[in-house]
Amino acid sequence: MRIYKVGGAVRDRLLGRPVTDIDWVVVGATTEDMLAKGFRPVGADFPVFLHPKSGEEYALARTERKSGRGYGGFTFHASPEVTLEEDLIRRDLTINAMAEDDQQNLTDPYHGQRDLEARLLRHVSPAFAEDPLRVLRVARFAARYAALGFTVAPETLDLMRQLSESGELQALTAERIWKEISRALMEDQPQVFIEVLRACGALNVLMPEVDALFGVPQPQAHHPEIDTGAHTLSALEQAARHKQPLTVRWACLLHDLGKGLTPKEEWPRHIAHEFKGLKLIKAVNERFKAPRDCQELALLVGEYHTHGHRALELKPSTLLELLQSFDVYRRPQRFEEFIAACEMDARGRKGLEERSYPQADYLRGAATAARSVAVQPLLEKGFKGPELGEAIKRERLKALKAYKETASI
Ligand code: CTP
What we know:
Layout: E1 2-6, H1 8-15, E2 23-27, H2 31-36, E3 40-43, E4 46-50, E5 57-60, E6 62-66, E7 74-78, H3 84-89, E8 99-100, E9 106-107, H4 112-118, E10 120-121, H5 133-145, E11 151-152, H6 154-165, H7 174-185, H8 190-199, H9 202-206, H10 208-211, H11 228-241, H12 246-254, H13 273-276, H14 278-287, H15 292-309, H16 316-325, H17 332-347, H18 358-371, H19 376-380, H20 385-407
Parallel strand pairs: 2-5, 10-11
Antiparallel strand pairs: 1-2, 1-8, 3-4, 4-5, 6-7, 8-9
Helix pairs in contact: 5-7, 5-8, 8-11, 11-12, 11-17, 12-15, 12-17, 14-15, 15-17, 16-20, 17-18, 18-20
The structure holds cytidine-5'-triphosphate.
């Protein structure tokens, strides 16, 4: 039995990046050998085991062949005769198809090291096409390693295009796709993920609503970059630069979907795009079964981002409605995330990345003012039921009027 470190752990060590989890491949062993050594099988019919102490994954060397559509459509063959080279050739990228023994001797039959140096994400063999999820994986790696200068090899992009056009992406489950999207959005340059998906035609399949934003103009006065797709990518880029959480990044990606629905005659204006976009945001949310907090924030940011930008001009009654819509009294964190998404939207414009965004503090102040209304004195005055609700609203409105006056001095 020979044991090798494989995949991301080898790649990231060679890149000088921190290695988080290690995958191992075992050559020359049977399931019985593994069980005899105390390894625990992961699934009933997959030759992967967990180490009895470290809990790391050890997989028997295997070959794989696609036997149908989707993830289930796989047959694999694991036996002590399968060589390391045979196991490595079924993997996605050359930089992920290197193995290392305990002396750090590298086995690199498909020239992963050469591609690491050339900063290329290149598929190992035509077997790449056997798992369409790899289209998203490559886009995610492109986002992660963009800062190091990595790009997708042209022949790999061609293959990704063929896969996108073949309809194979539709066979992927929402859960697997969301896992890739959410990980990619949390990379340092998530906009590269979207760019790569777009370049190979996968964006048009997965999120046609986002793809449709490219080529749609906006008024130059507010959007020097003009193109709505370019603006969306910049907003996402800013969100990553400012270390925003997934919820905010997801909301930035979807905030302007309504602009893709504007009739050309109305360009570059987009009247009521906030409202028109809601059904599209809902559709994308549901397509990938995004977590509830991501879904909620995307919808709220879609509907109210223009309110955020116009915060200083809003009437106290409109401010109050905004705060009520966010249930800012019970969900203060969600309102903070809304403010952050608005700020990223405002900065995600060409040449305006460093602008100040006074709306943020203004909105925070408004939330504090509305929250400062105490309920106890109203209870003591005898208000209850719907009347109490109305009385609280009146007091909050008063507080917001006073806030607006002092804030504008
Ligand atoms: N792999 C593959 N195709 C996939 C998934 C995984 O070829 N669809 C192979 C690659 O060799 C990869 C290894 O399995 O390096 C481990 O997969 P995984 O842990 O998902 O990815 P890592 O490369 O370790 O990357 P990350 O840093 O994102 O975890």
